[in-house]
Structure formats: C-alpha cells, structure tokens
C-alpha cells in the first residue's frame, strides 16, 4: 500500500446568506459528512443566516488540494483567496463572499488552484438572496403537517436522503427507522430534527418530498388554490 497518495472524496458545497441590504455569503467546501452538515445548518441558522440550496460537485475532489472561489461580479469581494480541502469535524473554514449592492443574478465557480477549468459552477439568482421584508409565509411542511404525517408512505428513501443532506444524523436515522409505523416515524421527524433544523431543514425536506412523494405534494398544492 502506497503512503501519501492523495485520496479523492465526494464533497458538498453549502451556501448560507444574510438577510440584510448588503449580501454576505458563507460558502463551505466540505467532505460528505451528514453530521457535520447538520451542525453547520444549525450554527448558521442560529446566527441569522439562511441556506441557499444548490447541487453539489459531481466529481470527487482530492483531499489536501487548494481551491479558489470566484464570482462574475466586479464588486464581489471573496476571502480568503483559497482554501485547502481538509476534514475538520468542528469549525471548518469557509469562503466569505461580500457584495455591497447586489441587484442581479450571478455565477459562483470553484476551481482547483492553478487550474482554469471549474469543478463546480452554479447560478445564484436574485430572488434566492433578496430579502423582501414581508411577513414570513408559513412553510409548506408546517401548513400540511397533519396530512404529511397521515399520508407519507416512502419514509425509507426520505430518511436516506435526509441523512445524505445532513438534516438528520446517524443516531436519528437509526432511531426513526425502527419505529414500526410510518405515522409515528413522521411524528418523530417533525418533533425532532425538522424542529431543530428550522427553515433550512424544512427546505431540504420539502425538496425530497417533491421527488419521493410527488403525487401527494401535487395534491396538497392543489388544495391551496
């Protein structure tokens, strides 16, 4: 076995934004670790940030490599200049993106240092980061909690994806998974991880429901009209 060979791993890109007139993003590049992702979700939410959900890098990246984050806006300030991909179970470093007067869609790109080809590029749309100042609307999963508890069937794949996205930890996954009925699993999910994770966790849960319980979500949406 060779010693010191770089290891390629699957990674997540996590983006959190402020609710202020100017825009500050905290952008994390971390190894796929549901526990770490859940901890970051809770920490950022408690500090007044909100997650912007974006697809993660499709290709695995090398541990120990350095990466640069760029934005296609002239007035965007990004610190630090580069970050090293490493595993830190607590307090991982992040890119801070500051834009004083954002008023348009823009692109974020991640590239390995000294390489031109990005390994990850995503559009950050204006309606995703702007604060409207309006009263917050009740979240879909809160509004339809009773129906979701009664009617969701595919709890297994839903739990798999919640673990993958960092909304629940392995302990939550194991505890909820052995509950005998789907209704009790859903009650436990609502009273535990979804309540603790707040808006960011519910956003992820809703996105998973749209995929795994598409007919149910469509029916509940029709009832709102």
Looking at this protein, list some descriptive labels.
5-stranded antiparallel β-sheet; single chain; 225 residues; Death Domain, Fas; alpha+beta; 11 strands; 2 domains; 8 helices; Immunoglobulin-like
Description:
The protein is an alpha+beta fold. It folds into two domains: 122 residues, Sandwich (Immunoglobulin-like); 85 residues, Orthogonal Bundle (Death Domain, Fas). Helix content is 40%, strand content 24%. The chain is built from eight helices and eleven strands. The strands form three sheets. The chain has a five-stranded antiparallel beta sheet with strand order 4-2-3-9-7. A hairpin with a 5-residue loop joins strand 2 and strand 3. Helix 5 runs antiparallel to helix 6. It is globular and about 55 Å long. About 2% of the residues have low confidence. Its main location: cytoplasm. Keywords: Cytoplasm, Immunity, Inflammatory response, Innate immunity.
* Range of strand content: 15-25%
CATH topology of the largest domain: Immunoglobulin-like
What integer value in Å does the Rg equal?
Answer: 19 Å
Strand order of the largest sheet: 4-2-3-9-7
Please provide the count of β strands.
11
The CATH C-level name of the largest domain is Mainly Beta
Spans of at least 5 consecutive residues with low confidence: 132-136
CATH architecture descriptor of the largest domain: Sandwich
Helix content: 25-40%
State the major sheet.
Answer: 5 strands, antiparallel
């Amino acid at each position: 076995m060779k010693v010191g060979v770089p290891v390629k791993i699957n990674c997540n890109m996590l983006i959190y934004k402020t609710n202020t007139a100017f825009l500050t993003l905290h952008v994390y590049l971390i190894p796929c670790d549901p526990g770490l992702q859940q901890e970051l979700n809770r920490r950022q939410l408690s500090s007044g940030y909100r997650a912007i959900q974006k697809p993660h890098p499709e290709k695995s990246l090398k541990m120990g490599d350095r990466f640069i984050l760029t934005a296609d806006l002239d007035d965007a300030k990004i610190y630090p200049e580069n970050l090293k991909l490493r595993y830190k179970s607590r307090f991982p470093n992040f890119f801070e993106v500051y834009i004083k007067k954002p008023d348009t869609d823009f692109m974020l790109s991640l590239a390995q240092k000294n390489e031109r080809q990005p390994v990850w590029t995503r559009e950050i749309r204006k309606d995703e980061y702007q604060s409207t100042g309006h009263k917050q609307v009740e979240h879909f999963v809160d509004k339809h909690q009773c129906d979701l508890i009664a009617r969701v069937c595919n709890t297994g794949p839903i739990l798999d994806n919640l673990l993958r996205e960092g909304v629940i930890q392995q302990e939550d996954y194991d505890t909820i998974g052995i509950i005998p009925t789907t209704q009790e699993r859903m009650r436990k999910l609502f009273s535990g991880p979804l309540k603790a994770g707040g808006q960011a966790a519910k956003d992820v849960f809703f996105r998973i429901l749209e995929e795994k319980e598409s007919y149910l979500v469509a029916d509940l949406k029709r009832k709102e009209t």
